[in-house]
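Appendix B, record 7
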Amino acid sequence: MKNNLQFNFTVDKATKTIFIEKEFAAELSLVWDAFTKQEILDQWWAPQPWKSVTKYMDFKIGGRRFYAMVGPEGQEHWSIQQYSSISPKTNFKMLNAFADKDENPDLPGSNWDLNFNEQNGMTKVSITIKNDSLVRMEKMIEMGFKEGFTMTLNHLENLLATLSQK
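Structure tokens (predicted):
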């Protein structure tokens, strides 16, 4: 595995936006699938030892993913992702919001814009997370979003290395 893959995490409080860039040593189609297919998402979309458990996912414009991050003691933190735009293998956008187990969203959420770009077998994912509320963004950061999402993306990097060899 290549160890010098690009990773940037920047917070701009003035625009209430988080910018993340992560490079993966994998082809675009595999990285796209990792972000858009339930069976792969559930293998990495949670900081270990937590696990992602998707109740349902309908990856289409207007569709949703309703899932929980489940902790080692059985704790559950539910979220909803609602897809607002999809350009296959290049971009998708979604509203991401915490929720209760009955799928009631805790609004406001944040708007995620994910861009995928491959060069020479390396795929870069650029994620822009725009928050309506500075308070919500600061709460996300205070809850350890940077550390947790960094661990999660590193877990994906390892998973992609394994999946690329199949």
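Remarks on this record: The longest helix spans residues 145-164. The chain is about 25% helix and 45% strand.
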